[in-house]
Amino acid sequence: MGFSDFQFLPRDGAGRDPRRFPGHREVHCYLPDFCAAFGLMDAVRLNTRVVRVAPTSTTTRQRQWAVRSVRRLGGPEDGARVEEEEEEVVFDAVVVATGQYSHPMLPSGIEGVGEWRRRQLHSRLYRTPEPFRGEAVVVVGCGDSGTDIALDLRRVAREVHLAASSEAATPAVSRMVANHGDVLRLHPRVRRLHADGRVSFADGSSVVADTVFFCTGYGYSFPFLDTGGAVAVGDGGCVVAPLFEASSTCSRRPWRRRSPSWACRGRSWCRGSSRRRRGGSRRRCPAAARCRRRRRCCGPWRSTSAPGRPPACRGSTPTTAPPHRRH
């Protein structure tokens, strides 16, 4: 873990260990150190909420972006009344890099969620294990957040039940459960929550729990972005389009090459000059030899060149599309 120009190395008081997967406390120590080393905090506005980002003009060539934000000047921790200051600044370009780790996604296949009267939380709200001391906790999902929270809770909780689908129960998770079998237990997916506090699993077993943690991921949400439909979020918050380079032709992009003749769509993670299609066969990019970004596959493509002209690879602007989208 770590950026190439700022290694994730142990430091006195930081508690970082580069030999293993870091926990959230280690990452929390690393990020402020990175900002301090490169002087990034001079360009960061804290306690500021962006409320609207909208174009100032409908024309593409002279378009600028108005960013309206609200900054909190005081708060209850200061013993003063909360004061806010609104500001609007015009920029030539805006990069939305808010990620997808703020809008929780809750599972829809669990019955009785509305009937369960005990505590239900998303992993986004987890901070420390102390409030759950002596409790029986069910953690739904065994991704990075689920395993991290389960290991953190095992030190104070009476029981920790980790529920996951069979596909998600990797050998690493099984070993983790085996090492802490006195407190930590692995179950299949949750089927139903009962009003009396029971949690039923897909194999018919059940446990009585005090808290259920949903470590089920996040979705994209841009409530501040006003683009008139130019940027859309779909598939239940899992897909946002178009991205910076996700255009079928890129003909309206100012960073396009001089004489584009064909464009790529697909995921840019694949290596090599070909990509396996759904049928199992490989379709080779005819211009892969001239592709500047050889580490990225041109993937599913369609020729847009004129008859008789060899297609030119648009390797310098690889596109990214959701893996489930059909071309």
From TrEMBL:
Keyword vocabulary terms for this entry: FAD, Flavoprotein, Monooxygenase, NADP, Oxidoreductase
Q: Which domain of life is it from?
A: Eukaryota
Which coenzyme or cofactor does it need? FAD
Question: GO molecular function, one example?
Answer: NADP binding
* InterPro entries, alphabetized: FAD/NAD-bd_sf, Flavin_mOase, Flavin_mOase-like, FMO-like
- Region Disordered: start and end of each range? 302-327
Q: What are the EC numbers?
A: 1.-.-.-
Q: Name one Pfam family in it.
A: FMO-like
| UniProt function note | Catalyzes the conversion of methylthioalkyl glucosinolates of any chain length into methylsulfinylalkyl glucosinolates.
> What family does this belong to?
Belongs to the FMO family.
- What's the protein called, per UniProt? Flavin-containing monooxygenase
